[in-house]
Amino acid sequence: MSDGDGRREGRQRAKTDFRFDDARLCFAFAGTLADRGREVRVERLARPEDLSRWCVESGCTTAAPTCTEADLDGARRLREAVQRIGLALAEGATPAPGDVGLVNRAAAAPTSTPVLSPDAATVRWHGDDIAAVLSMVARDLIELCGSDQRTRVRICGNPACGTPFVDTSRAGARRWCSMKTCGALVKKRAYRARSQATTEADEAAVSIR
Fold it and tell me: N or C: which end of the chain has fewer CB within 10 A?
C-alpha cells in the first residue's frame, strides 16, 4: 500500500517510487521521469505495470487498468509534452503547437468517473482503460493553462530535478517542487556544507595557535 506520496509501508521511499507531494496531477505525471538535470535520468515508468500502478497511486482510479507497451509509449509522449508546456509556462513562452495538439487529443478521451459510496463517506474513481486516466492528466494541464495560476508555474530550484510546479505560496517565492523531497535535500546539503566549512575553520584556527 502507498501512503499517497509514493512511499511503501514498511520501507524507505526508493528513487523509483512515484512522487505526489505538493504536486498538481499533470506535474506529478511529468515527475515520473526523475533527475532531468542529471546525465543519467531515472525512469519511473519503466514497464507497462508501472504505468498501471501510477494510475491507482495517483488516485485517478481504484481499478488498475491493463497497460501495453504501446500504452506506455503513448503515456511517455504525453508526459514529455506536459513537461515542455510546463517549461514554456514557467518561461512565459508559447508552447509548441505539437505539444498542445498532443495534450488536446489526450483530453478528448472520456475520463474516469467518480462514484460515491452508499453512505456518501468516500469517493472512488472508476475507469476502464489507460486513456481515461491520461485524459484526466491532460485536462488538469488544460485547466491550469486556462487559469490565473498559469503565471505561477515554476521549475524546481534543485538543478537535478527540473520538474514544473505551481507556486501557491502567498509571497510567490516557493523554490522547490516539494519541501519533502527537493527542498529538504537542498537544505540538508547546504547544512552539511556549512558544518564542513565551520569544522575546517575551527581546525585552521587551532593550527594557527
Answer: C
